[in-house]
Protein 1
Amino acid sequence: MEDRINDLESRIAFQEHTIQELQDLVATHQKQLYDMEEAMKVMARRISQVSTASSGTGATDDERPPHY
């Protein structure tokens, strides 16, 4: 009976350790995801600014330069 209790206690300790590692990993991934979302927002704003600035010049990438 004592061996069985020790075995169960050992399993519970291992499971608690594994659960803690998984929680830490999830927290790390959540932070990385948040950071990537923020970076994408910044890039989207920059692309929008560049697009707005280039559309104000009247030239597009499809137009031929005037010397052609």
Note: The radius of gyration is 28 Å.
Protein 2
Amino acid sequence: MMNPIDLPFDIDDMLTGLRSWVECESPTWDAAAVNRMLDLATRDLAEMGARIERIPGACEPSGVMMGDMLRARLPHPRMGEPGILIMGHFDTVHPVGTLAVNPFRREGDKCYGPGICDMKGGNYLALEALRQLARAGIATNLPVTILFTPDEEIGSPTSRALIEAEAARAKVVLVPEPGLQGGGVTTGRYAIARYNLKTTGKPSHAGARLSQGRSAIREMAKRVLQIEEMTTEACTFSVGVFHGGAWVNCVSSEARAEALSMAKRQEDLDQGVAAMLALSDPETGFEVTRGLTRPVWEPSQATLDLAAMVEALHREVGIGFVHKSQGGGSDGNFTGAMGVPTIDGLGVEGDMIHTLQEHLDVPSLVARARVMAGLLAQLA
């Protein structure tokens, strides 16, 4: 039987297939766009003979409808027993139209496009690994379930329950989020909390009665500086969204923002959450409410044992290896925190994620697919 890492992965074929995914833009807040991407994945999975379920989207906390979820189970004699859960998201941070400024293109050993590294490239290589195994007649020891979700970039508000339900039925979880450059995977994630901020001002005419008003924008601007200055080595704070005002000739009566904090330890995040909530002040019209939270994921011995298996495959394929906990957050936070053996960062290597220069390193697409194929074939 052929060694799984020697399967005939073809880089040009893989880039051609991945291109259709990247050119189907799928920002989180556009449910129809995300669903179009899920349509493409559904077709690929159907061609693989998977049993497919499409779970309708739901509203996230602010009331916006999210895209659907896609669960696929590959044929296997032990279907229904605890097996392998491959888990990825198809939403991106890039709005529709980003292709005009960052089109899919290959430039030497780099291939560009919105969401190509985070994480369409990883999702694609996972399916290609399964396809190549099937074509070679190499059966996995464990049944395989694939779960694709629509809202990871905003904290997975509508998919977390399904993620945790599937993980509870799994023996191991594999997450093809972007890999560590130089060869490596993620075996833990820092804790993350999100916050909704609101300031309420007193409106007045900005030209005729400026002194009679109290600007919600001004108060929020002061609070942004205050919040970001709370950053320490133990817990970071940042504000990434800011909306305020409606008319330039009116003193703003309301402003809203969103903030995020991250910590390596759960106790540090909990202290950060308490500090943020303590900033609420009715007298100045400032209100902080807690949003979504990703729990800290610290690697278990079972996860470290999995990492050792992945390291051996990296060495066999001929790429470097390191494993570590890191920030950024992923749905691996949930499964790892549950105690389910989880390996994250099994996807492509690349850089400039969430920017207009997002790209993957082309050689990593095949190299990482070989590792994924070897891992799928070995897990038992």
Note: DSSP finds nine helices and 16 strands in the chain.
